[in-house]
Amino acid sequence: MAHNAGVSFGRRLKRDMRMNWSVYLLFVPILVYFIIFSYLPMFGIVMAFQDFKPTLGFFKSEFVGFANFIKFFTDPEFVRILRNTLAISLLNLCINFPLTIVFALLLNEITRTKFKKVVQTISYLPYFISAVVICGLIIEFVSSNGVITDILVMFGFPRENLLQNPKYFWGIYVFSEIWQGLGYGSIIFIAAITGVSQELHEAAAIDGANRLKRVWHITLPSLLPVIITMLVLRIGMLMSVGFDKILLLYNPSIYETSDVISTHVARMGIERMQYGYSAAVGLFNSVVGTLLLLISNTLSKRLASTSVF
Q1: 76-304 has which CATH code?
Q2: Tens digits of per-residue pLDDT, 106-125?
Q3: What is the pTM of this model?
Q4: What is the pLDDT of residues 201-221, one digit of tens each?
């Protein structure tokens, strides 16, 4: 019976491929891309259990078991790196994520089309600026003679280079993420809002509900599945703080608050050539991220009856 089911599926697949060959043809480059850049590199996980030497390769490098993981967990920097990674990610999640929803709701309330398009364009532009340019602007603005520093001095703060003081880094990073990603992050919520039935708004308006009540009782409940889906995905990425911006901003004087797992991996792998150790840290990061995604998805399914998969 199982054999017949397998044949039946094979026949259905062949028939579908003949009927929709153009769609499958479009899928081929995507499939090749993921095989080359996502699945084949997974073989490199073996490095996490080796004292990997490029001259020896995968098959001749010494196998050390879990020694690289033990070295990372017992490293004096482990707690600091994990704290910084989670703190920056959680701050970004708790501040930036709600702001994108609020921004989408505010944009939806703008009735003048031209003004709305101008606001959207201005808010989207920072996302498409190179990280190198963004970080260059940040470094200039928070220098001892920068614009942001001048403003802070007016409120009684000492004049100093803010990127030389560890206590300012989290705020600088999160603020830059808000500025760069607020508009772009709201796109999916704006798209979801356009799908909300206008008849519900009209009926609520007839019943005397003002704009705020309509947003609270109609728009937000309609957005809830999208919000939960995006939240689950964001929680799954808590361990993946974008290292490019941090790598361009941080320096040894602020490692205390700026060094995260991804920058630690880059520094140990590229600068100190500890490839096995870096692979182990990267594998730990990926496993924890996957667990967070699965846990958040399961909780979402049970509590809100909405999930990503």
Answers
A1: 1.10.3720.10
A2: 888 888 888 888 988 899 99
A3: 0.82
A4: 778 888 787 888 888 888 888
